[in-house]
């Protein structure tokens, strides 16, 4: 088992740490939001009423397996803290969603339109971040 120290200079670049985190989630056998919930999440964000979107996504999040729920909650809480420093890091909710959307929420099989699919994934993560307190 290889041990690493986050005090090593190679880990001082936030992009390296973020890249490693994204790689970890991307390499999971199933995404943090399980495949079976991909379509329901996308349907929820397509609802015309924003209030209904939040309520439906909250229901879907509550249906996650306990480990997935806890991990998603912890990660999104951290990303909310990152957004609080937008003046320094330029990581808006939209930017974070672009970075993490396709990693946390992806279909089991690639969709016909990759761009459209990614836009929906990003919107789902953006909704999770925007309404974190109401969803979790």
From TrEMBL:
InterPro entries: Rho-GAP (IPR050729), Rho_GTPase_activation_prot (IPR008936), RhoGAP_dom (IPR000198). One of its GO terms (cellular component) is cytoplasm. Residues 1-136 form the Rho-GAP domain. SMART domains: RhoGAP. GO terms for biological process: signal transduction. Gene3D superfamilies: Rho GTPase activation protein. One of its GO terms (molecular function) is GTPase activator activity. Keywords: GTPase activation. This is RHG15 protein. It comes from Zapornia atra (Henderson crake).
